[in-house]
Amino acid sequence: MKLKDFLARELGGRGVVDTNRSVLLKEFFKDPNKCIPDKGLLKEIQASDRYARMEGTVRDEMDMEEDVHKLYKNGVHTLLKWSEAAAEVKATVHGITNEFLDVAFEEARILTTTSAPEKLEGLCESVYSARWHHVVEVPDDKGMGMDVRRGSHRSHGSTGRLVTPSKRMTMRSNPVHRVPG
Question: Could you tell me which residues belong to the region Disordered (predicted)?
């Protein structure tokens, strides 16, 4: 956010001059006297609750930005790298950043250990993940075609049983049903 936007929103535009229209808030908080030439107005701005809240927010962001640069410089680019980082590396960041990263890693660790897919003992993956489908004859402009349709265990004809396989049938398909057309 720019200083002019903050002054316009929070203080009705008081303090905005040509020289501070493009100044970022983080630059303003580094040296407020440079951006607001009127000392009386600057003291009034700095005494407001809005100023204190915004200064705290901007300084927190500046600290986080500084911490990100330090971590990247030390090769910490992921939560896993954070968990493996030496105590000296972790000591270079602000306390709040350290706490955030520790909590984020712990939450990620818990999610990955509790969200593992359930595997049934003694079953092949293909059987465990099987779906019911069947082949149907579909009339088209060239005669009869075939189509695979989703189904359920009740889609095997009126008897509900599979036909007896012949030597020419493949065991991967279900019986063919005619679709009125």
Answer: 143-163
- pLDDT at residue 163, rounded to an integer: 52
For residue 147, give every residue at least 6 positions away whose Cβ sits within 8 Å of its Cβ, in sequence order, or none: 135, 136, 138
Give the pLDDT confidence score for residue 121 in this predicted structure. Answer: 64
Exposed / middle / buried, residue 75 (Cβ in 10 Å: 0-12, 13-18, 19+): exposed
d(CA 96, CA 90): 11
At 173 the pLDDT is 45
Bridge partner residues of 147 (DSSP):
136
pTM > 0.85: no
DSSP string covering 127-157, please? Answer: HHT---EEEEEEEETTEEEEEEEE--TT-ST
For helices 3-11 and 49-73, what crossing angle results, to 10°? 150
Cα 150–176–179 angle (5° rounding)?
75
Which residues, at least 6 apart from 36, have a Cβ–Cβ distance to it below 8 Å?
A: 15, 20, 42, 45
The residues facing 133 across adjacent strands are 150
The pairing of strands 133-140 and 177-178 is parallel
